[in-house]
Amino acid sequence: MAQVALYVRTSTTQQESSIEAQKERLNSWCKRHKVEGRFFTDRLSGKTDKRKSLKQMFTYAKQGKVNQVVVCKADRLSRNTLVGLRLKKQLEKIGCKLTVLDIPVDLVSAYGHMMFTQLLAFSEFELAARRERVDAVLWLKTPPKELIKLRGLGWSQTKLAKHFGIAPNTIRKRLRALNLS
Hints:
The chain is an alpha/beta fold. It folds into 2 domains: 3-127, Rossmann fold, CATH 3.40.50.1390; 141-177. The protein has 8 helices and 4 strands. It has helices spanning 16-33, 52-62, 74-77, 81-93, 110-140, 144-152, 157-164, 168-177, and strands spanning 3-10, 36-43, 68-71, 97-100. It has a 4-stranded parallel sheet, sandwiched between helices. Helix 1 (16-33) links the parallel strand 1 (3-10) and strand 2 (36-43). It is elongated and about 65 Å long.
């Protein structure tokens, strides 16, 4: 039996049910295709490729221990279009086929490549839209008058972020919008 790398990812450690659902689906795929799989699991954001198990999987593939990587959805591999396309190209370069269960065609074909690219783009958009909604809510937690007063007293962006209980990047954006950066 050929061995394939089965890549599973969630953004946080609180999503164990998603990990299990992905593993169950990938195990079913392995049984149907009569292949043996090895799982590589990350619990980090898909916006970056700086993930321990992803790197281990690529090392395993480069060593010729697998000739195929299988993921349930494109966004499990990446939520960044350019990163996802680069990862796909790196796999192809080392002779490793990428299979995305939600894309029913060969990703090497023009149609498959287009579908993969669009799904990555939608995933990236979804992540950015969610971030904007969260920022909008956090924006409301920083009353302009209080922010202006504290900034005038010399408070740093880090101190302001801790005071309001929001990310420093949101404070930076708010200060820039108020011409206080």
